[in-house]
Amino acid sequence: MDGRSARTAGRRKVHVGRSEEIQLEQTVVDRLYARLDELRSATRDRLARTRRSGPSGSPQNRSERDAFATLYEDRVAQLDGVEDRLVFGRLDLVDGETRYVGRVGLADAEHTSMLTDWRAPAAQTFYRATSARPDGAARRRHLVTHARRVTGLEDELLDLDAAGDVNASTLSGEGALLAAMTAGRTGRMGDIVATIQAEQDAIIRSALSGALVVQGGPGTGKTAVALHRAAYLLYAHRRVLERSGVLLVGPSRSFLHYIDQVLPSLGETGVVSTTLADILPGVRARAVEPPDVALVKGRAGMADVVRRAVRARERVPARDVPVRVDGTDLVIRRRDVRDAIAHARRTHKPHNLARVTFVREMLARLAEQYASAQGEPLSPEDRSVLLEDLRADRDVRVALNVAWFPITPQRLVEDLWTKPHRLVEAAPALSAADRRLLVRAQGAPWTEDDVPLLDEAAELLGEDDQAERAQAAAEAAQRTADVEYARQVLESSEAGGLVGADELADRFAASGPRLTTAERATQDRSWTYGHVVVDEAQELSAMAWRMLVRRCPTRSFTIVGDVAQTSSPAGARSWAQMLEPVLGDGWRLAELTVNYRTPTTVADAARRAALAAGLPVSPQTSARDVAGSLRVVPTTDLLTTVEREVRDARAEFVRDESGRVAVIATDSDVSALRERLGVVGAGPDTPVVVLGPVEAKGLEFDCVVLVEPARIATRGGGPGDLYVAATRPTQRLVVVHAQPLPAGLQESPASP
Ligand SMILES: Nc1ncnc2c1ncn2[C@@H]1O[C@H](COP(=O)(O)OP(=O)(O)OP(=O)(O)O)[C@@H](O)[C@H]1O
After folding, report:
1. Is 223 known as a binding-site position?
2. What is the DSSP letter of 219?
3. What region holds the UvrD-like helicase ATP-binding domain (predicted)?
4. Distance CA 390, CA 394 (A)
5. What dihedral angle (degrees, nearest 10) is formed by the CA atoms of 365, 369, 371, 376?
6. 227 lines ligand 1 (CB under 6 A)
7. Does 222 belong to an annotated binding site?
8. Spans of the chain, pLDDT less than 70
9. What pLDDT, on a 0 to 100 scale, did the predictor assign at position 684?
């Protein structure tokens, strides 16, 4: 949609079509729901029959039964998930064909298509066609339904010649879109599947390979598009992605909570979502770093610091070390250690794994010394007994550990922050001032900025995985057998078409409870995903990018964000600068230009303030304006004024189930405001919340009361934080201030 038509739509009402047309559509919608009910009950019957078949039979029969039970359970959940607004679109093609578009594909008993999945190629025209490029379509119709009832229609004529005698009163451009934009917020993001716009659709369906960067101002649908793209990719590339998985990285847990309904409503539940703080199994990073520390820890050069820290644990001792084994004097010689270290490094294995080579080499040299002390070669049996004795000897163990120290990532990184000599040794290039910033007390909690360093360390250190490798080989053999068996089962069963042999084999795997790809991926640090989606990506440091690229060696990424909204000092103001070190020039840029959230007046004010502060603001047009959407309230008593404004906003916007108000203030004001307003929780179900600008990132509310913008613009993330805070409302921004307003944020522009 271009900016002009969007604005026009803003002034239109949703047109309800003629009642006969609605009746006609109701008949179709009834048929589709009837088919949905039929499929549900058939699947439920099969599930019941499968469960009834009892615990008898061979283990093979039992695991086959369990696999089918899980399959039917998943299918029932999927069919239940698409109940709401099952069908939302109809496309009339010039050749006379009519196609209904909905959340899933449905076919009748004869396999004739009744409903086209929104992700199928056949649905693309529904989202892309314009009257300038109708792509074979004569008319696009949006169906508005509530609880299986058709309540409205909106038509767009795409090919005027072919349209015939369509009644003009049913024509309306973006009514469904406008209705979605003005609806009261619920604290949870909804899907946009019925109203995806052409520029968004192009991004959603863009190729899987390579990295796609989606830049767009606030409210342009970046998050919505990223989530729909994940669902689309899983549909279009199911074979690849179902096994490797899709990872979604969001800025905070509250943000993940805010979006967690979207994918299930699109029939997808298998995406792993996480924050950077939670990405490492076994590490809970809860503390927040001061900005100057975050900046240092995020630099690409920290990879070198970690590498040196690991190297420092492979060390030739200052002098030869005498040891006595089995009554014989031996020497751990410096030159032997040097050779063994070189040998172990040549394996190019991670430190803790290469240690095996180092130790083997050293023990062999000590055994040689022992043999020459005895004056005769050792028999193979004696030699292996001796090697065991050497390995068990305390002095030998200590000396070898000092030379090649087995260490966990946590210990390595903690030593850097708590033992100044370790940091000097690993980071000679850091200034003394930067090193001082990094010092902290032993046992201090991990921060989000530690996580990429821990991951870097884990990568270089590795774990001793011998047992795991043996197990993996055994599992691989078992799996080949399972897949073959599943193939035979599929050939003779009713499950064909719903599931592949690989997936069924997963379900046959008799060992323990079935783990989904998502569950397996979450538990495994070194899991590599088929695709990674990163939201609010402008905040990521160079070290965080290294960590994410390790999780997706094919570099298939969707990276969405806005370089004008950056708050982290380690984040970016330029995609090229941020991505070049990790992706080279292997990324493509797409831009979103229409703001579907914020009324024009508010968006313009926020934009003027951002431009005045020199931020790299993307051009954008708001899809609508709302009368009285910006209120500026000067005061000498902030708390009292905020209290009054919140009371008014609550009365105006909060209804039974919907309507959300946020007070956004600089972090240091948040607790006083919470106390004054009696606001405790900050969850999606709370009608009024008080947040700092970083917490508000990615979220939206009907009304935002912005407290003392001058303070927000000069703390933390500075003007970027103010830009985020001012662009959260869907209906109204109330600016309460005692200090002068930052330039640009006044009610009407100083100059036209
Ligand atoms: N095509 C659409 N149809 C209906 N609603 C839409 C559409 N595109 C976006 N929206 C709505 O606009 C709002 C903003 O979308 P979203 O949060 O994805 O924007 P964003 O670009 O990620 O914003 P920010 O950068 O400010 O976090 C959401 O309520 C979303 O549902």
Report:
1. yes
2. T
3. 195-599
4. 9
5. 120
6. no
7. yes
8. 1-17, 54-60, 62, 160-174, 464-475, 477-479, 481-516, 681-682, 747-752
9. 72
Question: In which residue are the tokens 């909570």 written?
Answer: 257
- At residue 380's C-alpha, the angle toward residues 333 and 341, to 5°, is 30
Q: Does the Cβ of 693 fall within 6 Å of ligand 1?
A: no
Helix residue ranges, H only, 379-516: 380-392, 394-403, 409-418, 420-426, 432-438, 451-461, 466-491, 501-508
Burial of residue 511 (CB within 10 Å: 0-12, 13-18, 19+) is: exposed
Would the CB of 192 count as within 6 Å of ligand 1?
yes
Please report the pLDDT score of residue 482 as a whole number.
67
Name the residue of 118, 174, 266, 597 whose CB sits within 8 Å of the most ligand 1 atoms, as the mutation to test its pocket.
597
CA distance 225 to 242: 20
Only one residue has tokens 């594909």, namely: 105
Beta bridge partners of 100: 90
Q: For 437-460, what is each residue's pLDDT tens digit?
A: 999 999 999 999 999 999 999 999
CA of 223 to the centre of ligand 1 (A): 7
Pocket test for ligand 1, best of 177, 215, 596, 615 (most atoms within 8 A of CB): 596
- Cross-sheet strand order for the sheet of 701-707: 630-634, 729-737, 701-707, 661-664, 688-691
Query: Is 116 part of any known ligand binding site?
Result: no
Residue 650: per-residue pLDDT: 95
The alpha carbon dihedral of 670, 676, 681, 686 has a sign of negative
Ligand 1 pocket test target in 222, 258, 592, 724 with most atoms within 8 Å of CB: 222
Burial class (CB in 10 A: 0-12, 13-18, 19+), 631: middle
Does residue 603 line the site of ligand 1, with CB under 6 A?
Answer: no
Cβ of 219 less than 6 Å from ligand 1: yes
Q: Answer whether 297's CB lies under 8 Å from 434's CB.
A: no
- Which of 223, 258, 602, 722 has most ligand 1 atoms within 8 Å of CB, for mutation? 223
Distance 200 CA to ligand 1 centre (A): 10
In sequence order, the β-bridge partners of residue 531 are 246
**pLDDT at site 254:** 86
Q: Where are the beta strands (DSSP E) in 270-350?
A: 272-275, 321-325, 328-332
pLDDT (0 to 100) of residue 446: 97
**Rounded (10°) angle between helices 394-403 and 334-345:** 60
Atom of ligand 1 nearest to the CA of 218: 26
Q: Which atom, in ligand 1's list, is nearest to the CA of 727?
A: 26
Cβ of 216 less than 6 Å from ligand 1: yes
* Per-residue pLDDT, 516: 66
> Does the beta carbon of 43 sit less than 6 angstroms from any atom of ligand 1?
no
Q: Is 153 helix (H, G, I), strand (E, B) or coil?
A: strand
3-class SS of residue 52: helix
Report pLDDT for 495.
41
Structure confidence at residue 280 (pLDDT):
92
Contact residues for 419 (Cβ-Cβ < 8 A; gap 6+): none
Q: Is 698 in the pocket of ligand 1 (CB under 6 A)?
A: yes
pLDDT at 167: 44
pLDDT digits 0-9 by tens, 210-231: 999 999 999 999 999 999 999 9
Q: Tell me the residue type at 27.
A: T
Can you tell me whether residue 596 is helix, strand or coil? Answer: coil
pLDDT the model gives residue 132: 81
To the nearest 10 degrees (0 to 180), the angle between helices 394-403 and 380-392 is 70
* Distance between CA atoms of residues 307 and 427, nearest Å: 10
